[in-house]
Amino acid sequence: MIKKYFSFDFQVIGKVQGVYFRKFTKEQGTSLGLVGWVENQKDGSVKGVVQGDQKKCEEMIHWLSNIGSPKSKIEKMIKTNEREIDKLQFKDFSVRDDKKQK
């Protein structure tokens, strides 16, 4: 049987920049055995992609929606592009540098 993985995109709105949200998101994702990325957006939100075991992804959804970094204040988490995938598209969980944005 081929293992299926779960994938979703997310955007977290609230006080999520300047509060180590990306660092804690990477640590949480890595601790759950998930892969993906997270980056700051110009509008003050944080967005990213998470992939891995569906139950672990559900734990990550809860974390992104309700917990976050200690000093963050999450107003809303928007989840999109939920799907099953045959293989992971990333090797690990990374923080993307917002300096690369135009």
UniProtKB/TrEMBL annotation:
Its keywords, alphabetically, are: Hydrolase
The Acylphosphatase-like domain is annotated at 7-97
- Give the active-site positions: 22, 40
Q: GO: which molecular function terms?
A: acylphosphatase activity
Q: Which InterPro entries does this UniProt record tie to the protein?
A: Acylphosphatase (IPR020456), Acylphosphatase-like_dom (IPR001792), Acylphosphatase_CS (IPR017968)
Quote the EC number: 3.6.1.7
Q: Which family does it belong to?
A: Belongs to the acylphosphatase family.
What's the protein name? acylphosphatase
**Lineage of producing organism:** Eukaryota, Sar, Alveolata, Ciliophora, Intramacronucleata
